[in-house]
Predict the structure.
Amino acid sequence: MNDSTQSTTLESITEAKQSPASIKKMMLILSKATLDNVYACFILANGARMEGIEAEIFFTFFGLEAIKQKSLEHLHVATVGNPALHIPTMLGGLPGVEALASKAMKKEMEKLDIPGVQEFLEILSASGVKLWACKLAMDMFHLTEKDLFKEIAGVLTVGQFYDRAKGDHTHILFI
């Protein structure tokens, strides 16, 4: 690296450190309601709000399970085909393995004082995170707003969700 390149690189690093945060809004899309996906999404949304970043979550397809009143406290860890568990796929599919893995994960989260799904949804809503259900998925699974967590902001089409994402400094993350 010559002196000119090194100087330019140092200048750009200094400028990046001095410029204000470029993210103003996070739009998160949750498509699967496994414990690991749900908590990843909720923690990212909560972290955004803690940093002063606007956050919205769009629950689509099986992600709706995370806001369905009957199922939101009964989510599980996906044990089949989950390489992070370091267990063979065949073993992950045996009866009771999913329940055992889910119980173990919930126990570890309790040790860290991570709230349950219902409580976390309440925290997110209270902090200003907008929670949206996908209209197509709602229709597909024959759900109404009465079936969902009471504090959702509403039901949107994909187009309406994208309209909400318009603007500079908005980032969309699919989980």
